[in-house]
Amino acid sequence: MNHPKILFMRHGETEWNLAGRAQGRLNSPLTAKGRAQAESLGKILARQLGSAAGYDQMVSPLGRTVETSRHIQKHFDFTPAEEDLLKEIDLGDLSGLTKPEMVARYPGHMAGKPDYDWYFGAPGGETLLQMRDRAARWLAGLTRPTIAVAHGQIGKVIRGICLGLDDHQILRLGEPQGIVHVLENGAETIWQ
Asked: Using CA atoms, how far apart are residues 100 and 94, in angstroms rounded to an integer?
């Protein structure tokens, strides 16, 4: 399926990112670095686009993405609508825990999972299949080029669908902060 052009950005670094604490649907504020990353996104958009004319603008309603959007607005005319489908993965019982706490409490779930694979299918949380469905519903609703600010895991799934990747390839995608993923015609380029 072909989608309109998407400019996708992950929120800036948060206090919990820095502390190694899983956020999921919970929230923590941006760090000084995260605020700088968000302002950098605004500068990148201003340099590359000039204006948001012709683009729909969306943001996850979670605090860290809304805060990122406010910092983008310092440099770029960005007035996003909140979109629930862009919320981060529901981590269920892992929400708010550090990785050592997860391993201690849920060793069966955590065993043998590289990178952030443990995010998917957490006890009481969303699976990769559920995330694919949610991301596909968001993509199906796009009618124009779109600028979106959301999260690492939903971003990996959205990017993977746009790039035609399988589940294993999606799980291996990075989730950097402070860059713009440009998704168009089944390809991804990066603006920095």
From this structure: 11
Q: Give the CA distances from residue 88 to residues 24, 79, 131, 192, in Å, rounded to whole numbers and listed in that order.
A: 6, 20, 9, 23
Q: What is the pTM of this model?
A: 0.95
Beta sheet of 81-82, edge-to-edge order: 81-82, 56-59, 146-150, 6-10, 180-184, 187-191
Structural domains in the chain?
A: 6-191 (3.40.50.1240)
- The pLDDT profile of the chain, 192 residues, written as one tens digit per residue, is 689 999 999 999 999 999 999 999 999 999 999 999 999 999 999 999 999 999 999 999 999 999 999 999 999 999 999 999 999 999 999 999 999 999 999 999 999 888 889 999 999 999 999 999 999 999 999 999 999 999 999 999 999 999 999 999 999 999 999 999 999 999 999 999
For tokens 């390809």, what's the residue?
Answer: 187
55: left (phi over 0), alpha (psi -120 to 50) or beta: beta
Q: Residue 166's beta-bridge partner residues? A: none
